[in-house]
Amino acid sequence: MDRRIRKSREAIIGAFIQLIGEKNFEQITINEIAERANVSRGTVYLHYTDKYDLLDQCIRTHFVQLIDSCLPCGEQALFPTAESLRYTFRYLDDHASFYAAALANQGVPAFRNRLQAVLLRGFDKQVDMSGINRGMEKGILVQFLAVAMTGMIEQLVTRATTYSAAELAEQVWALMERNQMVPQVQPTP
Amino acid sequence: MDRRIRKSREAIIGAFIQLIGEKNFEQITINEIAERANVSRGTVYLHYTDKYDLLDQCIRTHFVQLIDSCLPCGEQALFPTAESLRYTFRYLDDHASFYAAALANQGVPAFRNRLQAVLLRGFDKQVDMSGINRGMEKGILVQFLAVAMTGMIEQLVTRATTYSAAELAEQVWALMERNQMVPQVQPTP
DNA sequence: CTGATTGTGTGCAATACTGAACGGATTCTG
DNA sequence: CAGAATCCGTTCAGTATTGCACACAATCAG
Questions:
Q1: Radius of gyration in angstroms for the set of CA atoms belonging to chain B, rounded to a whole number
Q2: CB contact at 8 A, B8 and B43
Q3: Which of B1, B6, B7 would you mutate first to test chain A, the one with the most A CBs within 10 A?
Q4: How far is residue B18's CA from residue B14's CA, in Å, rounded to a whole number?
Q5: What is the chain A residue with the closest CA to B41?
Q6: Is A184 helix (H, G, I), strand (E, B) or coil?
Q7: What is the DSSP track for A160-171?
Q8: A12: closest CA among A22, A21, B183, A45?
Q9: Whole-angstrom distance between the N-terminal and C-terminal Cα of chain A?
Q10: B37 contacts on A by Cβ (under 8 Å)
Q11: CB atoms < 10 A from the CB of B127, how many?
Q12: What is the DSSP letter of B90?
């Protein structure tokens, strides 16, 4: 891709994320975004039809990154590991400014639901791949986990917890094991 | 000026100053500069004939800034004040990375001399404006001060002293008074 | 209400940037 | 030494960006 396109998009997205962290999405203007990105206003319209499109693409990009962060081990592992979970939480920690702003009360409407939906699809696929229901109603289990995980993420990115990303990852990993979402450790007889 | 030109120049200068701080000027390549600036190699040649021109323009810009920093009080003051001197040292402190790199042993050849020359011209003008020689050979006094000030600047920007920019400014101001380079304070009789 | 201000989305010609190519110089590397 | 690799400085056609213009909508202050 042309270097100019990359630079412009990065600048625009960066400015947008900054602004999201500073004020309500509705009162962000294209002028502000262009100014902050040090880019002509026309350039913004060249890449995005309006600020809703910009928001949408921004969210999509982050969700792709998030999903990607769940299996970074060269595709060799089909299931998350303690290691990959640490990596995911590390990613969330690094991008906390965006996720926190989007999740905030007056942040991006329905963002929490979209995040939850992404997590739900992830868990759903995971259960399908494992093949075993293990005595639980699948829909309930998956819903349960998606909601819980969304909450954990919110705690992390809004700095509402004193636990570090690594500590949180460790705790959540234990919960995943307890809920039989990952290959079980054999209890020593 | 076209926004693209501003952005490109800033990126190139920024990359160049970074590199100056990392390695010998001679072994810096145009490729590196372009890469670091996230700019096409051709763009560098669009603004600078070669790296020597880039260096030259970079030095010129900094010297203009430096001179500018000496009288920031809206041109109302003809002579430096304790306040303006603090401002100047603050400026040097903020741009220490460049000045230190340029002054370094294997930094920019003859940079120290050019800096000294700038300071010399400044002091010379200052003595002329004051109109009074006060019993000193002007050339000697000015030379003396320019050399001394260059040394002070080097101390500051290379972090060779534990004194802060403000402390240094205060001390140097006292020396300026002692050498009758500024309007004298009346000794209380 | 009215005029002023600010934002939106679109269109346009001018232009700065890009990437690729090239020949030639210099420097590694075996 | 020979060949590979890197850098230089230039050219060029294609493209993204710019700044300005416009008409229109929304918001706001008097």
A1: 19
A2: yes
A3: B7
A4: 6
A5: A3
A6: coil
A7: -SSS-HHHHHHH
A8: A45
A9: 58
A10: none
A11: 20
A12: H
Contact B129, B163 (CB under 8 A): no
User: End-to-end distance of chain B based on CA atoms, in angstroms?
Assistant: 58
* Axis crossing angle, helix A111-130 with helix A51-70, rounded to the nearest 10: 30
pLDDT tens, residue by residue, B90-135: 999 999 999 999 998 778 888 999 999 999 999 888 888 776 666 7
Q: Is the pLDDT confidence value at A91 over 60?
A: yes
Gap from A28 CA to C1 C1', Å: 29
Please classify residue B116 by burial: count the beta carbons closer than 10 Å to its beta carbon, then call 0-12 exposed, 13-18 middle and 19+ buried.
middle
Please give the Cα distance from A149 to A116 (Å, whole number): 8
Owner of token pair 């100047």: B88
Fold of B71-178: Tetracycline Repressor; domain 2 (1.10.357)
* Residue B169 in tokens: 């400014």
User: How far apart, in whole angstroms, are the C-alpha atoms of residue B1 and residue A180?
Assistant: 63
Cα dihedral B111, B115, B116, B121 sign: positive
Residue-wise pLDDT tens digits, B7-50: 999 999 999 999 998 888 999 999 999 999 999 999 999 999 99
Residue in A96, A70, A108 with CA at minimum distance from that of residue A154: A96
Which residue reads 């003859």 in tokens? B110
Q: How far is CA B104 from CA A24, A54, B33, B147, B149, in A?
A: 49, 47, 20, 16, 16
A88-102 burial code (b ≥16 CB/10 A, e <16):
bbbbbbebbebbbbb
Task: Collapse the DSSP code of B74 into the 3-class scheme (helix H, G, I; strand E, B; otherwise coil) and give the result.
Answer: coil
| CA distance to partner chain B, nearest, from residue A49 (Å) | 23
Spacing of C-alpha B174 from chain mean position? 21
Q: Name the phi and psi angles at A160, rounded to 5.
A: -85, -5
B101 vs B103: CA distance, rounded Å: 5
Return d(Cα B75, Cα B81) in angstroms, integer.
Answer: 12
Contacts of B3 in chain A (CB under 8 A): 38-40
Please tell me whether residue A106 adopts helix, strand or coil conformation.
coil
Chain B residue with the nearest C-alpha to that of A7: B38
